[in-house]
Request: fold
Amino acid sequence: MPKKSQCLRVPKKEGEKAIRLVHMLKIIDNELEVQRNSSHIYIPLNRNPSQEESEILKRNITNTEVIDYIFPFREKQKTFLELLEGKLPPYLLASIPKSMDIIGDIATIEIPPELEPYKNDLGCAILQAHKGIRTVLAKASAITGTYRLREFTFIAGEPKTETIHKEHGCKYYIDLAKVYFSPRLSYEHSRVASLVKENETVVDMFAGVGPFSILIAKTHENVRVYAIDINPSAFELLKKNIRLNRVENKVHPILGDAKQVAKDRLKGIADRVIMNLPEKAVEFLDAACETLKPEGGTIHFYTFAKASNSIENLKIRLQEEIEKAGRKVKKFLFSRSVRETAPYEWQIVLDVEVL
Reply:
C-alpha cells in the first residue's frame, strides 16, 4: 500500500546528484521508491533535514523543495548478509564486515582472517546485492609509503583496479593500485568547497586525483586552485580529471613535494590551504603558513587522533606549530571527527583562521 511521506523535489537534471547527496547525508528513506515525472524527481526522506543539511542541499542543487508526496514501497531485495546465510558456518556470520568502500564500480572490503576461506563467497554476494558493482577487491595491506597506497586482492567480478568515480556532479578517473582515494571524505570535499568564496586562491597541498580542487572549481565562477601532488600516477590522473570536468582554466596541477613547491612557487598567494595528509600534515605547516597571504587566511588541517588525545589538545599543538612558523592563530573556525580509521582512532579536521 502506498505511503505519504516528506520528500525532496528537484529538477530532473539534478536528480542523480541529489540522490547521491541525500544518501551521503543519510536522510533518504530506503523503504520507499524514488519517483519521477517529466520535469522532477521526488526523493523520499526518513526525516526532516536539519538546518545544516538544508543549506548543503541548497548550495549544491538548484530549486530544491521539501514537500509531501505519495510513494510506493520498494521491492524487498536480499541483503549482502542474507545472501551469505547458509554459505558460511553460523558461528562466522558475526565476523562478516559491516561496511565496505564503493569507488565507482569497485567495492573494497576488509576480510578478517577467519573468513579468508570464504572470500569468494563474500565477493559474489556483494555483486549480487549491489547491481552497480562490477569488481570486488579485498584490502591486503595497510596504507603505507609516500604515495599512501595499499595492496588489494581480487576476489570477484572483473579483475581490475581502474574505475570512474562520480561525486557531487564531478567524475574522477581512479586507479586504486596507483593512487590513494577515499569515498569516506565525500562530505569533507563538499563542506570545504562550500566555504570557498569567489575570487579566492586555494592551495591544495596533497591533491591526489583532485576531489577537493576540482569540486571547488566546478562550484565557483572565479577561483584559482593550485593542486599539488608528489605521486606521478596521481598527477597524471589529476590532469586527466581536470580536462574531464572542464576546469582547465581554474585548476593548475603541479607535480612535486608540497613543501618545496609551496616555498619555491606559491609564497604569499593563498587565501585558503587544504592539508589532507593526516599522517604527516604537521610536518608541512611551515610551508602552508608561507603560502598564505601576508594578511592571513584559512587552513583546513587533517590529522589522526587516538581516544586519549582530545580535540582541545590537538588545537593546542596546532597553535604551537603555527606560531613556530611565524604566524598566529586568530581563531579555530570548526572541528569534527571525519571518520574512524582504526579501533579508538579517528581522522580529525580542524579549520583555523591564521594571521
Q: What stands out?
A: Residues 80-160 form a domain with the GMP Synthetase; Chain A, domain 3 fold (CATH 3.30.300.110). The chain is about 25% helix and 30% strand. The longest helix spans residues 311-324. The mean pLDDT is 92.
